[in-house]
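Thread title: Can someone regenerate the structure for this chain?

I was given the following input by a collaborator and told the matching structure tokens would be attached. They weren't. Posting the sequence so someone can regenerate them.
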Amino acid sequence: MRTTSTGKGRTGPKGGRRRPRVTPLLALCASAALVLAGCSSGGGGKDAPSPSPTVSKARITTTPKDGADHVGITVKDVSASVTQGTFTSVTLTAQGGEAIPGGLDAARRSWHPSANLTRGTAYVLTAQAKDADGRSATRIAHFTTVSPSNSAVAFYTPEDASTVGVGMEVSFKFDKPVTDRRAAESAVRITSTGGQQAAGHWFGTQRIDFRPQEFWKPGSRVTVSFDFDGLELAKGIYGVQDKTFSFTVGREQISTVDAATQEMTVQQNGAVLRKLPVSTGQPRYATYNGTMVISEQDRQTKMNSTTVGLGDEYNIPDVPHAQRLTNSGTFIHGNYWASPATFGGSATSHGCIGLQDTQGGGDPESPGAWFYANSLLGDVVIVRNSAGGGTVAPDNGLNGWNLPWPAWTAEAPPSPHPPDPDTLGPTHTHAPPHGPRADGPDRITRAPPASATLSRSASGSTPP
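Best answer:
Regenerated them for you:
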């Protein structure tokens, strides 16, 4: 485990020699014994018995040591252990008196907290033990965890234990710029029961995505382990996470939209499941071409054109069966406001892919409801023949499949100087209807959850 700090204070049992302790009582008894021996008249009397030692043989070690700062916050960063004895009590208390839960092993010689700590908080770890003769020993360690300003958290997707489509990418987004990108990338390990190898690609200094060369094999299980805990990601900035999660790849579903015919062909495991009429982007807001991945699903959402700089063209509070394809706002979604003749006949949207639906989304037989019910996060949607649409950028959503493999695996250039946080653009979390072809900022219509999941996705999970 990487060391996030060095102790300030007394040297622990393994860190150097310790002076023997002599208590005043022991010294007094020893002196009294000498006096008695000097006054003895001899004559064959027995020697006075030696005094019993009062120092416990139990040796307690704490991690971190007393006085440490910038300590990590995972359950692996804090512990207590004892040799030549067993614990009678171990407590961990936060500033303000909050007790942190923890547990001993069966032998009562090792203790770990059972909950992660909080950044920028002072703690006191108190460990008490006794040796085989019942003599007590105590060790106290005061320490402070790494502060938010000196640590970085990575939000990731997909969610642990989820089932996803074959196009799902493993994406990490750091809340601070990473300058040692090679170290961060090396801290991630991905294995698949399908035998595929995933490679990472950096988009700037705060996001890295991983994917295999081809789509994930259906039915495979992918395990992701990452250990950023204690890793210096940038000067004075340390990671605080050490986690493992896994996901299962479901059946293969690839839907291909032909903008020339306004039709989408849905295939599962290579067989055509259904063909659906659609309405793609009008010439001024042509839909992106390329391979896109469903990264968010909403049974109903609000879409407002003012959030992407398109004036007051639309404001629809109840768009049904919306599934995100890009961060900039492209969705495939239900449409109840257009004439049924629109679908399969006209390109009328602002960049999204519309499917006929009902207001409220209550008809399960409608194309919009059917496609939503049969889709997974990570399913693939390919758009072709969208005149003027261009190709979607690989970092606009989970759409790295549009980058050729040699470019994907090329070594990242040296990290630039970290950008000024005030100049960073907004995070896109919601979208206008038909999605904007103009890539303006989307309005955040939902506050991010307290667990800090990656908001654009199905998503992902939480820092400890």
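The chain has a mean pLDDT of 83.
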